[in-house]
Amino acid sequence: MTQAPISDRARAIADNVERFVRETVAPHEQDPRMGAHGPSDALADELKDKARAANVLTPHILDDGSHLTHAETALVLRKSGLSPLGPVACNTAAPDEGNMYLLGKVGSPEAKERFLKPLVEGRARSAFFMTEPADENGAGSDPSMMQTVAKMDGNHWVINGRKTFITGAEGAKVGIVMAKSDDGACMFLVDLPDPAIRIERVLDTIDSSMPGGHAVITIDNLRVPADQMLGESGEGFKYAQVRLAPARLTHCMRWHGAATRANEIATDYACRRKAFGKPLIDHEGVGFMLAQNLIDLKHTELMIDWCAAVLDTGDLGTAESSMTKTHVAETLFKIADRCVQAMGGTGVSGDTIVEQVFREIRAFRIYDGPTEVHKWSLAKKIKREWSAD
């Protein structure tokens, strides 16, 4: 497949984002407002203000509401990912980036004005309420098991259920809630906070880059006006794929940037640090690890670009997004692991972002579908195609 050329406009945007992240955002990586459940809203808002002033806020969505191509977005989001705080500052972070994409594709003009506009402008955060607790046989990697229900009552839907690992729920102003009606899966737009959506607790997880952390949620008789259903009743799984296939890819873009930066830090360390009479880079065990990192970074970049180019044709299927998410997540984790190893004790300390990148990418191997679920999906496709022959 021949990839459409990247426009000069997109390259200029990417250059500006890279400069902003390296020069303005990276110095905040040791900010005390970085907590176990992500950066505080005060820090996030301050960084968004700086991005707004630098004209790099929500850079992948243009002033007229149109998007860069997915191939162009890949370049821009990789640059935003050069710091764990970069996507937060530039408003390209999950779950907001995926929610903005979904609302742009499916939302009515009224929904776009009320719910999408404040997200694009960086004045609000959002949460996507899909995953459910495994101990209740709820929807985790298998959304067909969804237990959250929606029933009509007059001109309102009444929603009840529990959700878990809901990223950014604490502090969010916009929610997209998935629930099951008699027609099937549905999505609902809600203003947050709402007393019917109760945060039971924010989980302590291995990652710490997303504002609000990951929460366990109880939804108790949430009343949503009928006109706040996103799209049509029973079409929720279709809309979920509209969101999730590109969102898996944009995760890959952002974490590729983070792995690139971690490798830069590890390379600088290995070239300066001496052991046994010579720089670490001259020891084959270290030098070969960093050489393999360069190979793997280029390989994953090419795979991301391939998947983005396919997505731009409108033909991206589950298989392409599953292959890319699986391979990129697993490979970036190996890169981050080598960076930690090359830096020794410094690599496991908080003195640089290498340790955080290692943790974040380890979590990436699970969210948006664990590696094993994607491989299982691909194996089913292999069997179907074999049976058809």
UniProtKB/TrEMBL annotation:
This is Alkylation response protein AidB-like acyl-CoA dehydrogenase. Belongs to the acyl-CoA dehydrogenase family. Residues 234-381 form the Acyl-CoA dehydrogenase/oxidase C-terminal domain. InterPro entries: Acyl-CoA_dehydrogenase, Acyl-CoA_Oxase/DH_mid-dom, Acyl-CoA_Oxase/DH_mid-dom_sf, AcylCo_DH-like_C, AcylCo_DH/oxidase_C, AcylCoA_DH/ox_N, AcylCoA_DH/ox_N_sf, AcylCoA_DH/oxidase_NM_dom_sf. Residues 128-204 form the Acyl-CoA oxidase/dehydrogenase middle domain. Homodimer. GO terms for biological process: fatty acid beta-oxidation using acyl-CoA dehydrogenase. One of its GO terms (cellular component) is cytoplasm. One of its GO terms (molecular function) is acyl-CoA dehydrogenase activity. Keywords: FAD, Flavoprotein, Oxidoreductase. Residues 8-122 form the Acyl-CoA dehydrogenase/oxidase N-terminal domain. It comes from the Bacteria. The keyword Oxidoreductase applies.
